[in-house]
Amino acid sequence: MNHQTKVFKITSENFSDVIRECAEIIRRGGTVAIPTETVYGLGANALDPIAVNRIFHAKGRPADNPLIVHVASVEQVEQLVIEIPPKALSLIEAFWPGPLTLILKRTAIVPDITTGGLDTVAVRMPADVVARELIRISDKPIAAPSANISGRPSPTSAAHVLHDLEGRIDAVIDAGSTCIGVESTVIDMSGGKPAVLRPGYVSEQKIEEIIGEVDIGYSDHVTDVTDVVRSPGMKYTHYSPSATVLLLEGPHNLVLNKISEMYADFTCRGARVGLLVTSTGLSSLTNDIVYLGSKDEPEEVARNLFLGLRSLDERGVNIILADGSFTHEGVGAAVMNRLRKASEMIIKL
Ligand code: TXA
Ligand code: MG
Predict the structure, then answer these.
(1) 215-216 and 171-174: which strand pairing?
(2) Three-state SS for 33?
């Protein structure tokens, strides 16, 4: 698969034309990278196995890793699932459209390839109007994993999508940077006690306020067995730039001191070292530095995380020292999860 990828820069003037043209690509079984409020997704008609296969092929995604099906209405969900249990409906009412993905028992209409052969399907209604309009006008539920080569950091801009997938997909809709920056929370509502399978923008606390206690069905470590059983995607290496990421966790000052020390050490031995930090204090050390945001503002850190990993990678650093001293409150837990999965080693101080 090597062809021209069309880039549509969407504005208020050309909005409906771009949506119409991209909806046509989706209806014909093509692939379109779309902005959502979390990260860019690589979309195709979720009910067309050949179209869905193009997504797996373009990303190099393992076939047992199921896709999230994006919808524009609850009626569309009703086609895809056997039932929407009352607690799932409460979550839909509280958080949709938005960054929450529900796992529900699927109907036969959903092809095996979309769900990696599971008897459940992941569904989410994105808040982003471009994504929702594309679903509505194409009149198809749209399967869309993050629009990156498998294993790489998720894309938060059209430039990131093109970096990974240019020539491998039919089109990308460029709507600027995504506003959240980390992926949706995934929660299993398919029976038994609800379990969060991937932390995301919607925190466990916010979910528990609506439906009571939930299980934590994920771990921040790649090899944990519980992940493999419940959410196939979590067992693969994720979010990794080419550089080796070393994550430092602990009190802010200790982390910053250790980063300076390790920076000097590695540089001395000839490595090119990039820094991903939540303090502007270290900027005298090097230009290969990305400020993620304040350690007390996890939403800012979330927005800059994947961009930071990609930008240091592009500068050609060999090692990234990542500051994990930001707050783990709210979306901070999701950011920590992504960083731990991207890291070769976690150093606790
Ligand atoms: O914010 C997001 O969720 C973005 C945007 C594009 O919507 N999408 C995204 O998709 O992050 P992806 O494919 O990168 O991650 C989907 C996750 C994977 O970990 C996958 O294993 C899990 O959801 N998943 C999908 N269907 C599932 C199912 N039936 N049961 C358990 N886990 C499932
Ligand atoms: Mg992904």
Answers:
(1) unpaired
(2) strand
d(CA 106, CA 80): 6
Global pTM reads 0.94
244 bridge partner residues:
319
Distance, CA 57 to ligand 2 centroid (Å)? 14
Q: Give CB contacts under 8 A, 24+ apart, made by 189-197.
A: 189/85, 189/87, 189/88, 189/91, 189/102, 189/103, 189/104, 190/103, 190/104, 190/105, 190/120, 191/85, 191/105, 194/87, 195/230, 197/103, 197/227, 197/230, 197/231, 197/234
CB atoms under 10 Å from CB of 13, counted, come to 8
Read off the amino acid at residue 243.
A
CA of 254 to the centre of ligand 1 (A): 35
What is the Cα–Cα distance from 21 to 15, expressed in whole angstroms? Answer: 10
> E strand or H helix at 42, and its extent?
strand 41-45
Give the residue, by CA position, lying nearest to ligand 1 atom 24: 66
Six token digits for residue 237:
């290496």
Q: How far apart are the first and last CA of the chain?
A: 47
Q: Per residue in 151-179, pLDDT tens?
A: 999 999 999 999 999 999 999 999 999 99
